[in-house]
């Protein structure tokens, strides 16, 4: 029996197991507790450590001024940052840019490191990555060999199943330190749970067939479906089917969080949306009793979309960024963050990735910061290099 | 002796550790409460978070639980001259939500408020200059990062010794008590037993050392009376474990706190807000005060 197990047993069980008296057991438990107990430090020493040892005191700047300011420097190290929003809104685009930023030399605001990109739905596009790089940092990318070097630092992995993902996660933990990995992206977490739906796997087969048959550059005039369109169509089919709410991701959540903590890197995870069902829990029992609000009242407050993966997952992420569309304009909302005000920034996706239309951000009051809208959003992102709406 | 003679004599024997209600009342008055920096919230709490008791605070993600936890870790340090306890804090982080930048912001705002108060009220007080620096506040928060439920149990056991060595700690915040008990626990009976063990030890700690224990909890959904409702996590047995229970929720566009359970406070709700300075009065309360 290892030491820690002793802490889960009662004193009586220990007395029986070890065949000793009460006093010995109490003293043994106290001793074991003192050893197993994690060390402490003052909040001051924690801060000083971060400022001294880490890039910008533990932040990865996104290049979006308003967002970076709201997040005290950028995507924080050591915790999970989640991007949630409807299909095609720009989550993967954001992840591509972040991957690039993490691989850039520190003189350009990057982390000068490697990136592991877990691409569950085969949405990663290296052409798009290079395009974003060339448009955002032409000075670097036009230098000979730089594009190859930077994109060479980004390792893309496509797990075939949840169990393969689980297995690989443990290996990742070991190799993180060795390979100077500075960012881990999981795109998307929700897709892992929905079990790589039928559409996903069929799509992958089709894609591999198509990519062999067609030339590398897809002209805009190519009749549908383009690869990007298909992904989003498949995703919207999934939403209609309903991604399961309860999920067996408890262990993964815990493990990924500890991975972030232990390696002090940022981990960015994307999440999908699903429609809110009529029996969605949204009140405590005292609210039901006291104010007898009807379900219709609540429908007024909320939107019809909610994040997939449920409230347990929502508790586990430290930062939640909601990407949504309202009246045709896309917004990036800082929905959950221990360090930011509830701000919404209008944005667009351009050839150089995501760009904010205003760095000031609109401060939202009330639970609207958590709502996910998809009004007037029918644009699908094409990876054809043209400027997008 | 007959039973009739023995029983009254037994009634007079003092129980070790027991107190009369009268003594307890006097003791309560001696222990100041920790302010939350929100007037309405302090009011429904009877002045603030009570030392000597365990208070559980739960709510949906983004409600401000961590914010409140950090605010209390800062406010416990408010000097006695300013109506505080002048004490230190232990912050037990099980989720990694403790962001030092935010602690610094809240500490700076707390000092600003005290300095302002100094300026307004204590013009005649000679020695009054506040000598606190935000770094002093950060220095007095003992931060533990717990990564598993066994570490959580070990730490709970170890706290008694730690606090005996650091007698000026007057608040222990656990953020959150839930996290490690929600992942993959196959044996629910074991979970219930471990949690109640933790609750008992923390209550003992609170009482013996005269400090406040604040446990932050998450929410889950439960099927009650024909519909799905929100409820605090960790199950029914846990809901009995803590002395006081406060639920943070959205009421329209405002954040509210509701006293769900307390032996001494009546059931009431109060609005509060989360600002760049930390927990503060809600905007509507501010308007009301300005009009007074």
TrEMBL record, chain A:
GO molecular function terms listed in the Swiss-Prot or TrEMBL record: ATP binding; ATP-dependent DNA damage sensor activity; DNA binding
Biological processes, Gene Ontology terms: double-strand break repair via homologous recombination
Entry keyword set: ATP-binding, DNA damage, DNA recombination, DNA repair, DNA-binding, Nucleotide-binding, Nucleus
Protein name, per record: DNA repair protein RAD51 homolog 2 isoform X2
Cellular component terms (Gene Ontology): Rad51B-Rad51C-Rad51D-XRCC2 complex
InterPro entries linked: DNA_recomb/repair_RecA-like, HHH_XRCC3_RAD51B, P-loop_NTPase, Rad51_C, RAD51B, RecA_ATP-bd
Superkingdom classification of source: Eukaryota
Lineage, highest ranks first: Eukaryota, Viridiplantae, Streptophyta, Embryophyta, Tracheophyta
Entry annotated with the keyword Repeat: no
Natural source organism: Juglans regia (English walnut)
Annotated family: Belongs to the RecA family. RAD51 subfamily.
Coarse class of the protein's main subcellular location: nucleus
Cross-referenced Pfam families: HHH_XRCC3_RpoA (PF26169), Rad51 (PF08423)
Compartments reported by the entry: Nucleus
Residues of the RecA family profile domain: 56-273
TrEMBL record, chain B:
GO molecular function, one term: ATP binding
Predominant cellular place of this UniProt entry's protein: nucleus
GO cellular component terms given for this protein: nucleus
Domain (RecA family profile) ranges: 30-219
Key words of the record: ATP-binding, DNA damage, DNA recombination, DNA repair, DNA-binding, Nucleotide-binding, Nucleus, Signal
GO biological process: DNA recombination; DNA repair
UniProt similarity note: Belongs to the RecA family. RAD51 subfamily.
PANTHER family: DNA REPAIR PROTEIN RAD51 HOMOLOG 3, DNA REPAIR PROTEIN RAD51 HOMOLOG 3 RAD51C
Function of the protein: Involved in the homologous recombination repair (HRR) pathway of double-stranded DNA breaks arising during DNA replication or induced by DNA-damaging agents.
Descriptive protein name: DNA repair protein RAD51 homolog 3
Species: Juglans regia (English walnut)
Gene name of the record: LOC109019028
């Amino acid at each position: 029996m290892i030491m820690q197990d002793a802490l889960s047993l009662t004193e009586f069980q220990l007395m029986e197991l070890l065949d000793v008296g009460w006093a010995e057991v109490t003293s043994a438990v106290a001793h074991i507790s003192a050893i197993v107990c994690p060390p402490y430090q003052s909040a001051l020493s924690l801060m000083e450590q971060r400022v001294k040892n880490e890039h910008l005191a533990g932040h990865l700047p996104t290049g979006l001024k308003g967002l970076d300011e709201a997040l005290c420097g950028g995507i924080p190290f050591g915790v999970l940052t989640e991007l949630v929003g409807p299909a095609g809104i720009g989550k993967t685009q954001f992840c591509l840019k972040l991957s690039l930023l993490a691989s850039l030399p520190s003189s350009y605001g990057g982390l000068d490191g490697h990136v592991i990109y877990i691409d569950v739905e085969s949405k990663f596009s290296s052409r798009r990555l290079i395009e974003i790089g060339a448009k955002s940092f032409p000075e670097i990318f036009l230098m000979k060999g730089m594009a190859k070097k930077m994109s060479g630092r980004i390792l893309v992995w496509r797990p075939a199943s949840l169990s393969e993902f689980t297995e690989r996660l443990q290996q990742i933990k070991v190799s993180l330190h060795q390979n100077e990995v500075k960012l881990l992206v999981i795109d998307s977490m929700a897709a892992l749970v929905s079990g790589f739906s039928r559409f996903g796997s069929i799509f992958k087969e089709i894609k591999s067939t198509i990519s062999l048959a067609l030339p590398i550059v897809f002209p805009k005039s190519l009749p549908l479906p383009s690869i990007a369109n298909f992904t989003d169509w498949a995703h919207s089919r999934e939403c209609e089917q309903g991604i399961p709410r309860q999920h067996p991701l408890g262990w993964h959540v815990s493990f990924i969080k500890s991975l972030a903590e232990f390696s002090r890197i940022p981990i960015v995870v994307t999440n999908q949306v699903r429609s809110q069902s009529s029996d969605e829990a949204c009140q405590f029992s005292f609210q039901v009793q006291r104010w007898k609000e009807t379900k219709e009242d609540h429908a007024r407050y909320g939107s019809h979309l909610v994040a997939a993966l449920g409230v347990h997952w929502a508790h586990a992420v430290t930062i939640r960024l909601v990407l949504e569309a309202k009246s045709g304009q896309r917004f990036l909302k800082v929905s959950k963050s221990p360090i930011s005000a509830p701000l919404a920034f209008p944005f667009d996706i351009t050839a150089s990735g995501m760009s904010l239309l205003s760095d000031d951000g609109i401060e939202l009051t009330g639970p609207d910061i958590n709502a996910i809208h998809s009004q007037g959003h029918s644009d699908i992102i094409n990876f054809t290099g043209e400027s997008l709406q | 002796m007959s039973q009739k003679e023995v029983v009254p004599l037994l009634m007079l024997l003092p129980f070790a550790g027991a107190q009369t209600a009268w003594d307890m009342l006097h003791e309560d008055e001696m222990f100041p409460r920790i302010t939350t920096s929100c007037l309405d919230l302090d009011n429904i709490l009877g002045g603030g978070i009570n030392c000597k008791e365990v208070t559980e605070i739960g709510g949906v993600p983004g409600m401000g639980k961590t914010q409140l936890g950090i605010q209390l870790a800062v406010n416990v340090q408010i000097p006695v001259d300013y109506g505080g306890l002048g004490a230190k804090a232990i912050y037990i982080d099980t989720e990694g939500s403790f962001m030092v930048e935010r602690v610094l912001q809240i500490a700076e705002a707390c000092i600003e408020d005290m300095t302002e108060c100094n300026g307004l009220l204590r013009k005649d007080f000679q020695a009054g200059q506040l000598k606190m620096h935000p770094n002093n506040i950060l220095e007095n928060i003992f931060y533990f990062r717990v990564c598993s439920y066994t570490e959580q149990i070990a730490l709970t056991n170890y706290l008694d010794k730690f606090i005996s060595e650091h007698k000026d700690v007057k608040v222990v915040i656990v953020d959150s008590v839930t996290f490690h008990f929600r992942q993959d626990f196959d044996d629910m009976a074991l979970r219930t037993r471990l949690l109640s063990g933790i609750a008992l030890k923390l209550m003992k700690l609170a009482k013996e050392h005269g400090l406040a224990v604040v446990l932050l909890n998450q929410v889950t959904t439960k099927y009650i009376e024909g519909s799905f409702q929100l409820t605090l996590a960790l199950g029914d047995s846990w809901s009995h474990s803590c002395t006081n229970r406060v639920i943070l929720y959205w009421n329209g566009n405002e954040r509210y706190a509701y006293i769900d359970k307390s032996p001494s406070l009546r059931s009431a709700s109060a609005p509060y807000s989360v600002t760049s300075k930390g927990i503060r009065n809600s905007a509507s309360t501010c308007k009301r005060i300005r009009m007074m």
